[in-house]
């Protein structure tokens, strides 16, 4: 890889192993050309329908609506929960901002709950205590392609009359006790961003598991109109019936995505082999107490979305990241806890409120993992991690 002018000016080592690399797995370009020649690239054409049907059948979801992003799917889900000012929604703070934004933009309050130390998912044992008479929903987030403990969460929600919206942005084609993530709650949201397992640049989907929500979901997605009913011949004209937005993806994105979905077994096998290679080769460092590897409970089937390591402390995490970057490997941190953000503080949160979340966020480092990652690239990552800890052993005591 050639060194850029910016790298020369700053003295940076060029990145030889990126954190992520977009890829073409099958017929993506052919399907895009087909969509163009068919004369429909705006959305809700053949490929949008094919993607939705594929997910409905594979994940056993009654209805799937493709969206321009997972953010859009979460916004629709929050609207379908009828959230408004004064309402509360329970969720982890260790998540992307879209989870909380979907709630806050409607005037509702995100109620942040700590995560489990093993999976970094919402701690189901803390959910009940967070419920008040203003709670309307729980938004569990499936981190790194490993499911939250959904049965206890569902039991609490059903008993307390709460909606459950799965943020399965990272969980496409993972499962919990034999059920696909996104198919378990009332609603589920997927992401097909270029960093995810199956990609189309930007893209998402809303899984509708409660059929009573479908009609309004279609209206919200189509700018608040009943246009879908018009196309099905259910009304003689369509008009504005609700507050919605433009939540329909481009047919170009859907064409790209459908080719990716067709290659699911190949992509899954590729990611699993790389994930397991990391587990095997980094196990000695875990045994030596240098780092901690990801955990997958027995009742969960991971989609191997990302591979992270937990270092003993923030200083070690930062030093290892710098070491890797200096040798051409891009390993990155993850979420800054939302409750410690400037926006989070406006809801009354402060440092120390969620100790596990704050601790793991300071010690977590994500390693490169992508479909077309070569053996040589993964060797380089592992070799440099091992090299860093060898240097630590050889360094004289202060």
Explain what the structure shows.
By secondary structure, the chain is an alpha/beta fold. It has two domains: 235 residues, Aspartate Aminotransferase, domain 2; 131 residues, Aspartate Aminotransferase, domain 1. 40% of the residues lie in helices and 12% in strands. It has 15 helices and twelve strands. Strand 4, helix 7 and strand 5 form a beta-alpha-beta unit. It is globular, with a radius of gyration of 22 Å.
Proportion in helices: 25-40%
Averaged pLDDT: 94
From the helix content, strand content and strand pairing, which structural class follows? alpha/beta
Number of domains: 2
Q: Measure the end-to-end span.
A: 39 Å
SSE pattern, N- to C-terminal: HHHEHEHEHEHEEEEEHHHHEEHHHEH
Tally of DSSP β-strands: 12
CATH superfamily of the largest domain: Type I PLP-dependent aspartate aminotransferase-like (Major domain)
The stretches of 5 or more residues where confidence is low (pLDDT under 50) are 1-10
Amount of beta strand:
5-15%
CATH topology category name of the largest domain: Aspartate Aminotransferase, domain 2
CA gyration radius, whole angstroms: 22 Å
Per DSSP, the total helix count is 15
| Large-scale geometry | globular
The top level CATH class name of the largest domain = Alpha Beta
Q: Outline the biggest β-sheet.
A: 7 strands, mixed
Query: At CATH's second level, what is the architecture of the largest domain?
Result: 3-Layer(aba) Sandwich
List keywords for this structure.
disordered N terminus; 7-stranded mixed β-sheet; 12% strand; Aspartate Aminotransferase, domain 2; single chain; 3-stranded antiparallel β-sheet; 15 helices; 398 residues; Aspartate Aminotransferase, domain 1; alpha/beta
């Amino acid at each position: 890889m050639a060194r850029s002018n910016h790298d020369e000016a700053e003295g940076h080592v060029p990145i030889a192993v990126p954190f992520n690399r977009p890829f073409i797995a099958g017929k993506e370009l052919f399907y895009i050309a087909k969509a163009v020649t068919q004369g429909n690239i705006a959305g809700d054409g053949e490929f949008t329908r094919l993607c939705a049907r594929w997910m409905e059948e594979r994940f056993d979801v009654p209805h799937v609506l493709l969206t321009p992003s997972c953010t859009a799917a979460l916004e629709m889900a929050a609207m379908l929960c009828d959230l408004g000012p004064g309402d509360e929604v329970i969720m982890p703070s260790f998540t992307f901002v879209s989870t909380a934004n979907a709630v806050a933009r409607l005037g509702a309050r995100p109620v942040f709950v700590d995560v489990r130390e093993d999976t970094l998912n919402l701690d189901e044992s803390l959910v009940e205590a967070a419920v008040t008479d203003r709670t309307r929903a729980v938004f569990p987030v499936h981190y790194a392609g490993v499911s939250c403990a959904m049965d206890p969460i569902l039991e609490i929600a059903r008993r307390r009359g709460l909606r459950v919206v799965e943020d399965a942005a990272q969980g496409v084609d993972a499962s919990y006790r034999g059920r696909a993530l996104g198919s378990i709650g009332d609603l589920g949201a997927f992401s097909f961003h270029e960093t995810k397992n199956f990609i189309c640049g930007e893209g998402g989907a809303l899984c509708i598991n409660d059929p009573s929500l479908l009609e309004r979901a279609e209206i919200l997605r189509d700018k608040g109109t009943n246009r879908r009913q018009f196309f099905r011949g259910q009304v003689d004209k369509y008009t504005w019936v609700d507050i919605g937005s433009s939540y329909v993806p481009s047919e170009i994105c859907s064409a790209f995505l459908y080719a990716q979905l067709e290659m699911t077994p190949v992509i899954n096998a590729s990611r699993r082999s790389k994930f397991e290679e990391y587990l095997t080769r980094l196990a000695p460092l875990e045994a030596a107490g240098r780092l901690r590897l990801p955990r997958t409970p027995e009742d969960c089937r991971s989609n191997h979305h990302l591979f992270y390591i937990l270092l003993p402390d923030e200083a070690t995490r930062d030093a290892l990241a710098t070491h890797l970057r200096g040798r051409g490997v891009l390993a990155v941190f993850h979420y800054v806890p939302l409750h410690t953000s400037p926006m989070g503080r406006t809801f009354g949160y402060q440092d120390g409120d969620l100790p596990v979340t704050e601790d793991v966020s300071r010690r977590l480092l994500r390693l490169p993992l992508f479909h077309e990652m070569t053996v040589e690239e993964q060797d380089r990552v592992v070799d440099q991690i091992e090299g860093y800890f060898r240097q630590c052993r050889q360094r004289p005591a202060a």
